[in-house]
Amino acid sequence: MLVSEKKMQKNMTTIDILNNLLIENNNIFEFTFCAFPKQKLLQDSIKFEEIENVHFQEALKIRDKFHLPFWDSIMLTYFDKENTSDSILESALRHNFPFKKFTSHDIAQLKHESLLTTDYVLAVNSAVLMKNGEIKHILLLDFHIPISESNCKQVIKVLKCLGLNSGFVLESGESYHYVGKEIISYETLVNLLIKSLFFSPIIDRTWIAHQLIEKSCSLRIGYKHNVEPKLIYELNGN
Fold first, then answer.
1. In 3D, which of 104, 13, 67 has the Cα closest to residue 200?
2. pLDDT at residue 4 above 50?
3. By C-alpha distance, which of 117, 106, 69, 96 is closest to 221?
4. Angle at the Cα of 142 (from 45 to 28), degrees rounded to 5?
5. Cα(129)–Cα(161) distance, integer angstroms
6. Quick one: which of 66, 107, 111, 231 is 20 to 30 A from 14 by CA?
7. Helix (H) and strand (E) counts for the chain?
8. Of 41-45, 139-143, 149-153, 213-217, which gets the smallest average pLDDT?
9. Above 70 in pLDDT, residue 114?
10. End-to-end Cα spacing for the chain
11. Sign of CA dihedral 137, 142, 148, 150
């Protein structure tokens, strides 16, 4: 992939990046982590009748053709229709709340846990506990744009449009994650998430909505489809 703005260690994971941030910033005491139940697929969470199946099949075709997020594709299936599914619309509001939230500076143990767990999704949260007792945040972003050399360049352009010049871009398996270096306030976090919506669907719109509900951001740190997020590019303040 791309050559970084700063020479970096190959195959660094999200946990490795957090460990580096902990070492480089003496004011950080602990990071926050969340355990989420595995997300149910739409077809497993509601009863599918004929109309639900029509929406679903049309959405899959739209998603595959235009590489749109699934829920954006679903919403497009409601255009110019008289007979539509209420249950799918109601499902759009379903939020996957974490069943556990905790702080830790034991990065090695968290890395071990992230590799072993299969019953739930372990994620880093944006909230950072500082040594003075304050709660600050690091910006986390979840992209939807498919992985390619040219698309990685678009991700970097979007980040720079948002004024983000210091952070890490990781391949997440199907797209990209971003982990910021800067410690920011909650107000700044919310403002950046709102601005990120202007770049949907390059950045995942539905993901942003769920983060705003949580009043923080979370990104998976373990495996999904046998893929662990890996660092590919570092923005270094230029």
1. 67
2. no
3. 117
4. 115
5. 28
6. 66
7. 9, 9
8. 41-45
9. no
10. 20
11. negative
What's the rounded Cα separation, in Å, for the pair 110 and 113? Answer: 5
Q: Of 157, 214, 169, 153, give the one whose Cα is nearest residue 189.
A: 214
Domain boundaries, the chain: 14-38+100-236, 42-91
Handedness of CA 59, 62, 65, 67 (dihedral sign): negative
Query: Which residue shows structure tokens 């010049």?
Result: 165
Q: Which residues contact 8 (CB under 8 A, 6 or more apart)?
A: 231, 234
| Contact (Cβ atoms closer than 8 angstroms) between residue 183 and residue 137 | yes
pTM (2 d.p.): 0.92
Residue with tokens 């992985």: 147
Q: How confident is the model at residue 39 (pLDDT cuts 50, 70, 90)?
A: confident
pLDDT surpassing 50 at residue 3: no
Whose tokens are 């600050």? That residue is 136
CA distances for 119 relative to 35, 96, 99, 114, 115, angstroms: 10, 15, 12, 11, 12
pLDDT digits (tens, 9 = 90+) for 176-209: 999 999 999 999 999 999 999 999 999 999 999 9
Tokens representing 165 are 């010049």
> Cα separation of 30 and 62, whole Å?
42
Please tell us whether the domain made up of 14-38+100-236 is placed in CATH 3.40.50.20: no
Taking only the tens place, the pLDDT of each residue in 62-96 is 999 999 999 999 999 999 999 999 999 999 999 99
Amino acid identity of 200? S
